[in-house]
Design brief:
The protein has about 475 residues and is α/β, with parallel strands linked by helices. The chain has 15 helices and 25 strands. A seven-stranded mixed sheet has the order 15-18-19-14-13-21-22, sandwiched between helices. The chain has a six-stranded mixed sheet with strand order 10-9-8-11-12-24, sandwiched between helices. Strands 1-5-4 form a three-stranded mixed sheet, with helices on one face. α14 links the parallel β21 and β22.
Length: about 475
């Protein structure tokens, strides 16, 4: 069976312990490869490789760094079909989605930051006749990047691209649940001519490799995307060491639908914002808030459309809903459906595991699920489920919608459907979230600040914000 390898100092190598653990194919519920069970010593080896590479990479002309990253983006494009197949197999997502979203976005993340670094400038502050200050923005050193399983290569590259473009060396840990495309990327890095040790990819469990990244004194910056509890754990280790931290965490996003919206467009997009990637996108709108006047019409149309979604083999082009990522995660989602029933929720559609035939008979498939009749304060409406499960709640006034929307500990994104321009601006100002989509969802411009408020995170990714995060500002003051 294939053994995934770590990528350290430019070489593909086994973990120091020689130990591996199983990697599953969610659509078949079957082991198909082996993952290095790395430890602190592997991270330490990667740190040494990064320390050797940093003096070369950090002073390399930006144009040269950019050229190497552009070559890497070209190689992702050249291998896009193969990478999409790998992503779909490793994660359970429909191949069509990996082809249309995950892999193109991984390519554009790298291409974007390879270009952005050439346009990244710093400020100067003049004190009239006394002095002039200018700011240097310098690479920091060794960056730790820890990413989740839901959009594996997409989120992995979203971190490593700005960190590398800014001149840092990176030690990256993909999720142990979906390690495969990061492994493939390590082979492409060699082909692109990335100097040895500039990027190191160390595979393994969060409790070992992730913790080692948090604890290692030579890793000065950590960029993390994942669950809120894990973010808190990383912060508890890294903050007292004064590491720079960017935390992109969970969400419980509202999708607010007013009577005056464009109903057809709203319905079409709400299908995606509810169930794309089996609902396993941090930005999915899992709490649907509908104004009373169209509640019944929405409910009927939404349930009808949801029942038409095809659950099936991710490799089949006609599949809308693939497998969820693991058996543990499937059981967690199902336990939330049970909880919703105990809390008095009514299941309007779905709620069950789906057993397919043939090769997929042991796969982890779930029906897309719609629940109504719960108030905002119950656990189902407060905790992140991260699966194909949404709840419906109705509201009458704008104030009520706002109070429901803001009534959780999370604040990642909000979606708003209305044709009243003034209301749209008013709501956008008052929603407690880092991102507000009006009459759309998941429309992304890579230059914009990306991140959450409240328990959804600290800091912003994207555009120059990311390049600022991955550089240290130094003020130089010249007395005139
Ligand atoms: P997770 O927190 O379990 O794992 C994320 C990563 O952290 C993995 O690589 C894991 O191995 C590692 N990890 C686990 N324990 C660790 C520890 N003690 N120290 C250091 N690293 C550790 O999250 P997940 O289940 O992989 O992903 C789902 C979560 O990610 C959801 O909460 C989702 O909302 C969130 N997410 C957020 C965003 C965003 O941009 N805000 C994007 C995608 C996913």
């Amino acid at each position: 069976m294939e053994k995934i390898q770590n990528y350290i100092g430019g070489k593909l190598i086994p973990p120091i312990s020689g130990a591996y653990f199983d990697n599953y194919e969610p659509a078949k519920g079957k082991v198909y490869s082996q993952i290095p069970d790395s430890e602190y010593s592997d991270i330490d080896l990667a740190v040494k490789a990064s320390q050797k590479a940093f003096p070369i990479w950090s002073i390399m002309e930006k144009q040269k760094r950019s050229d190497i990253l552009l070559k890497l983006a070209d190689l992702i494009l050249k291998n896009a079909d193969q990478l999409a197949l790998e992503e779909s197999r490793d994660n359970g997502k429909p191949l069509k989605l990996a082809k249309q979203v995950d892999i193109p976005r991984a390519e554009s993340n790298i291409r974007f930051f390879a270009s952005a670094i050439l346009h990244f400038a710093s400020e100067s502050h003049s004190m009239e006749n006394t002095a002039i200050n200018y700011t240097l923005r310098q690479p920091i050193g060794i960056v730790g990047a820890i990413s989740p399983w839901n959009l594996p290569l997409y989120l992995f590259t979203w971190k490593i691209a700005p960190a590398l473009a800014a001149g840092n060396c990176v030690i990256a840990k993909p999720s142990e649940i979906t390690p495969y495309t990061a492994y493939s990327l390590s082979k492409l890095c060699k082909e692109a001519g990335l100097p040895d040790g500039v990027l190191n990819i160390v595979h393994g469990h969060g409790s070992k490799v992730g913790e080692a990244i948090s604890k290692h004194p030579e890793i000065k910056v950590i960029s993390f995307t994942g669950g809120t509890q894990t973010g808190a754990r990383i912060a508890s280790i890294a903050a007292p060491m004064f590491k720079k931290l960017s935390l992109e965490l969970g969400g419980k996003n509202p999708n607010i639908i007013f009577d005056d919206c464009d109903f057809d467009e709203m319905l079409k997009v709400t299908m995606r914002s509810s169930f794309a990637n089996q609902g396993q996108i941090c930005l999915c709108g899992s709490r649907i808030l509908i104004q009373k006047g169209i509640y019944e019409a929405f409910k009927k149309a939404f349930v009808e459309r949801t029942k038409q979604l095809r659950i099936g083999d991710p490799m089949n082009e006609k599949t809308n809903i693939g497998a969820v990522v693991s058996e543990i995660h499937m059981n967690k989602i199902l336990s939330y459906v049970e909880l919703a029933k105990e809390e008095g929720g009514k299941i309007l559609s779905g709620g069950n595991r789906v057993i397919l035939e043939g090769e997929n008979k042991n796969g982890w498939f779930l029906e897309p699920t719609i629940i109504e009749g719960l108030d905002n304060s119950c656990r189902t409406n407060q905790e992140e489920i991260f699966g194909p499960v949404v709840t419906l709640q109705s509201f009458e006034t704008e104030a009520e919608a706002l109070s429901l929307a803001n009534g959780t500990e999370y604040g990642l994104s909000s979606t708003l459907w209305t044709s009243d321009l003034k209301r749209a601006h008013r709501m956008a100002q008052n929603l407690h979230s880092g991102i507000v989509w009006i009459n759309c969802w998941l429309v992304r411009d890579l230059r914009t600040p990306f991140g959450g408020t409240k328990n959804s995170g600290v800091g912003r990714e994207g555009g120059f914000e990311a390049l600022q995060f991955f550089t240290e500002a130094k003020n130089v003051c010249i007395y005139l």
